[in-house]
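Request: Have a read of the protein record below and say how the chain folds.
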Amino acid sequence: EPNATVDVSITDGADNTVSAQVTADGDGNWSLPSSGLDVSGLQDGLLTVSATAIDSAGNPSAPATATVTKDAAIPSAPTISAPIETDGIVNAAEKADVMLEGVVEPGSTVDVTFTDGEGTVVTAEVVADGDGNWSLPGDGVDLTGLADGEIAIEVIATDAAGNESVATTATVTK
């Protein structure tokens, strides 16, 4: 309704609630600016958003509700459970056929970066399965372009909500 007051509340699964009040414009449109409600104190998980319009006579509308998911948790750092080629050394026969695997938050995107001593970088990306297992298969990355010597490995996971983990690092000799 034009010029109505709109009460907006967001409630988490533990019944913690934040609320704000806005005013609809002359056409009945309203919006809540991104700075309008601080949901940082609400628990991660399903949130219920409720909006109730109150007209100039004080009559409330039926509430409109929707649910959204809050996921602000940074994923745990990825684990690396199998070193490259199981011995930590990439020899001439293995440099085009590396294997790396580990565990992250299920469904996360895993970015693996290999950097040689000269600063040359090779990257690969895989997606963890529903149990969080990820694997960079033998044909998933080719290290032939990296210089011989120590290779730094950095693994970062990004969950479905876009939260990025801290990096897990390892080294291997080529």
